[in-house]
Structure formats: structure tokens, C-alpha cells
Design brief:
single chain, alpha+beta, PmbA/TldD fold, Metalloprtase-TldD/E_cen_dom, protease
């Protein structure tokens, strides 16, 4: 199908989901609900995995989801189904209403405020459907893997993967709000092996975008996976020491993620966050900033409204090192005596301010220390800020990579890490909802031998 036909098909499907959602809300209110909300979605995709030049798996997906939440006063009930037949929808309504009648009242339960609903829906350029044949995807996977395997020193492959997917979604509630979203995402990746025996190493690379026009060159992705794999050969461990640590962009976004989690609803109203009562306080250097920008064209997290229909707006999370606000949906906001920030379902696009230093300049800033390219484990406490993760990367001396390192642990407290950020690079990784370059932290404990 051409783009015009695909667009028409998507619009018709969204019309159908919208009509269904509005009908279900009407029926839920007729059953006694004082408020109701519906989320309905249709996700389709095609994925191929190629290894050693041959297709290993081909998977087509077509998932439907339908969720209903009803409120009987301050009593809440939810039910869901993947079956959109009339009898299944009716059973879902009956189940949600039955649950609500028997749950305890919660003073904070209910829809987001009606006056917060989105009323403007600009095109965010998220819909770029692609309908390749299976053979076309296999051919791309073979090209990626062949380019990587052709690099001298690569001894084996874990394969290449190519995926294309689209998502259509509708959120509606009894305020009369109906929001429609359509988005695509296309991803390719490659994982390779170098060395043998005890010095065998693996690494990978990937790219993900709304449109395949944004993809990096296919063969270049395979070569980058090979370069990263070979760079890990001959890895050593380190003696225990304290040193500066440079978080590569793909790891740095996880560091920002810990900050955002600690500044978000659940941990805050449960009093389980080290950032409780920190709005208006400096927690980062005075030059540091994070802006939430929900309306970036083709952004990985772009949206006109949150999971409750609340309009999203661009605003600062961190300005001049000071925490400007929390990230809240309506329930968490009520628990805290605050207002929703349009973050039900999480943040949209987070843009971390940076200087002009590229990756090589950031290595020069690091001087002698650890370049962190991979973290493992879950050793992060949002309550205390304690941070301890398994790690791998490279030891850097005088601004130059000296040798790869593995089987080490990095540790510090997030408060000290955030306060000790020395620089953010211009080497921004755009494949995520968190847009950040590499981040240099002035001191952490590194333990190995």
C-alpha cells in the first residue's frame, strides 16, 4: 500500500477505536459509573532475525488492547481485554463496574481535572509507515551482518535484527475528551563476537527512528558493531580506586533516568525518594539544565497529551541546577497536594543542556579515569540515593583510551554524583526519549580486583 492508502487506513482504524471508546464510556455511565476512561490500541509489526547470512526467525505481530477504568464516586475498578468483539467488551464493562463497587474509597481517585484536557493537537510528524516484504527485511539484515563480519578480527555473529512497527491509540474519558495518536518506529541492530576462549567478547549497535529516512547507513551500523566488539578484546579489571567517570551517552541517559524517577509521583508520595521536598533546591551545578519538550517533531517521546488526556507543555525540570518541579500525574499530584504536570505515564522528551565538546574533547576533560560504556545490575536506591552497579568500559590516560576494562563495580551516592557533574558533551544520542550527550562525573569509587 502507498502512503495515502496507509494514512486512510490508519484514520479509519482510529475512527473505529474512537467510536468504540465513546460508546463504552456511555454504557459504563449508564451502569452507574460517575466517571470512566478508556484506552484502546492496535499495534502491528514485522521483525526478522538473521544469523550467518540466513533468516533465523520471522515474526508478524498484530496486538489489540482495550482497557476501561470506571469510578463509582471515589471507588475505582479496571478491566481489560485484547478481544474487541461485542460480548468481550460487555464483559469488560461488567467486570470493571463490579470491581469498583467492592473496592475501598480513595480520596485521590478520579479522572484528571476537566480543564486540563488537551484542546490542540498539532501534527508531531510521528507517522512514517513502511511496508517492506519479508525478503526486503532479510536482505537488510544480511547487509548489516555481512558488513560487520567482514571486519578483520570478528570471529562469529549473534545476528542482525530489523523491525518495523506502527501503533494506533485512542484515549477517551467522560469529560468528553477523545485523543488520537498514531506513530511508527523502525529499528535495526547487530551483535557480533570477537576472539575465542577466555578472551571472547561481544558487543552490538543499533539504530531506532520514526522514519527509515533517519536511519544511519546500514553497512555503517554493522561496522560500528564490529568496532565496538573488537575494542573490548584484551579487557582487564582494575584495582580499587577513586577516579572521575565519563558516562557514554547511551549510559548517561540512565543516570538522568534515576534523577527523573526520584522526582516522579510514586516514590514521592510514598516518601521513598531522596528528592522529597527538593523543589526549589539546587541539586546540580549552576549551569546544568533539563527541559521537557513534548512537541519535538519525530521525537521518540513526543505527545500532545499524557495518559490522562492532560495537555503536555514544554517546561524546565532543572534550571541553573535547581529542581523546578516534580513529574506528576493527577493521582500522585493529589496525594502530594499539588497539580498534575501532564506526566501521567512518564516524561516525554527530556533535553539535557550541553556544551560544545564532542566525544574526543570530553575524553580530554576526563584526563585519566574511567570511560563507562555499560552498566549491569539494579543496585540503585531512590530512597537513599546509594548507587552501585556492575560496569564495563575503558581506562583512559591523558585523554586517550588505554585499554578496555570489565568485571568492575562503580559506586557513589546520586546526590554526590549529580552535584559533581563537571560537563555534558555535545555527542547527543537521539535514539531515546532522553536526549543527552556524555556526562562527566568528578569522582566515583571503582572496585575490581
Amino acid at each position: 500500500m502507498n502512503d495515502v492508502v496507509l494514512q486512510s487506513h490508519a484514520a479509519a482504524e482510529l475512527d473505529r477505536l474512537s467510536t468504540l471508546a465513546e460508546d463504552v464510556i456511555t454504557r459504563a455511565k449508564a451502569a452507574g459509573a460517575s466517571q470512566a476512561e478508556v484506552s484502546a490500541s492496535v499495534d502491528t509489526g514485522l521483525n526478522v532475525n538473521v544469523r550467518l547470512g540466513e533468516a533465523e526467525t520471522v515474526e508478524r505481530t498484530q496486538d489489540r488492547g482495550f482497557g476501561l477504568t470506571v469510578y463509582f464516586g471515589k471507588r475505582k475498578g479496571s478491566a481489560s481485554t485484547a478481544d474487541l468483539r461485542a460480548e468481550s467488551i460487555q464483559a469488560t464493562i461488567d467486570q470493571a463496574c463490579a470491581i469498583a463497587r467492592y473496592t475501598e474509597e480513595d480520596a485521590c481517585a478520579g479522572l484528571a481535572d476537566a480543564d486540563r484536557m488537551a484542546t490542540e493537537f498539532p501534527d508531531l510528524d510521528l507517522w512514517h509507515p513502511w511496508q517492506p516484504t519479508v525478503d526486503e527485511l532479510i536482505a537488510i539484515g544480511v547487509r548489516i551482518e555481512d558488513a560487520g563480519r567482514a571486519v578483520s578480527g570478528i570471529t562469529n555473529s549473534e545476528g542482525a535484527s530489523v523491525t518495523t512497527g506502527s501503533s494506533l491509540g485512542v484515549y477517551a474519558n467522560s469529560h468528553g475528551f477523545v485523543g488520537r495518536e498514531s506513530a511508527t518506529r523502525h529499528t535495526m541492530s547487530c551483535s557480533l563476537i570477537a576472539g575465542s576462549g577466555g578472551d571472547m567478547q561481544r558487543d552490538y549497535w543499533y539504530d531506532s527512528a520514526r522514519s527509515i529516512e533517519q536511519w544511519m547507513d546500514v553497512e555503517a551500523l554493522g561496522r560500528e558493531a564490529a568496532r565496538r566488539t573488537l575494542a573490548r578484546c584484551g579487557a582487564r579489571t582494575l584495582s580499587t580506586r577513586q577516579c572521575p567517570v565519563l558516562f557514554a551517552p547511551n549510559v548517561a541517559r540512565g543516570l538522568i533516568g534515576h534523577l527523573i524517577s526520584a522526582a516522579s509521583g510514586g516514590p514521592l508520595y510514598r516518601r521513598a525518594s531522596f528528592l522529597l521536598d527538593h523543589v526549589g533546591r539546587a541539586i546540580l551545578p549552576s549551569w546544568f539544565s533539563i527541559e521537557e519538550q513534548p512537541h519535538l517533531l519525530r521525537g521518540q517521546g513526543s505527545s500532545n497529551f499524557d495518559a490522562e488526556g492532560v495537555a503536555t507543555t514544554a517546561s524546565a525540570v532543572i534550571r541553573e541546577g535547581v529542581l523546578q518541579r516534580y513529574l506528576l500525574g493527577s493521582y500522585a499530584a493529589r496525594k502530594l497536594g499539588l497539580s498534575s504536570t501532564g506526566n501521567a505515564g512518564g516524561p516525554t522528551n527530556l533535553v539535557v543542556g550541553h556544551g560544545e565538546d564532542d566525544f574526543q574533547a570530553m575524553l580530554a576533560r576526563l584526563g585519566t579515569g574511567l570511560l563507562l560504556t555499560e552498566v549491569m545490575g539494579q543496585g540503585v536506591s531512590l530512597l537513599t540515593g546509594d548507587y552501585s552497579r556492575g560496569a564495563a568500559g575503558f581506562w583512559v590516560e591523558n585523554g586517550e583510551i588505554a585499554y578496555p576494562v570489565q568485571e568492575i563495580t562503580i559506586a557513589a551516592n546520586l546526590r554526590d554524583m549529580f552535584a559533581g557533574i563537571r560537563a555534558v558533551g555535545a555527542d547527543v544520542d537521539s535514539r531515546s526519549t532522553t536526549l543527552t550527550g556524555s556526562i562527566l562525573v568528578d569522582r566515583m569509587t571503582v572496585a575490581g580486583e
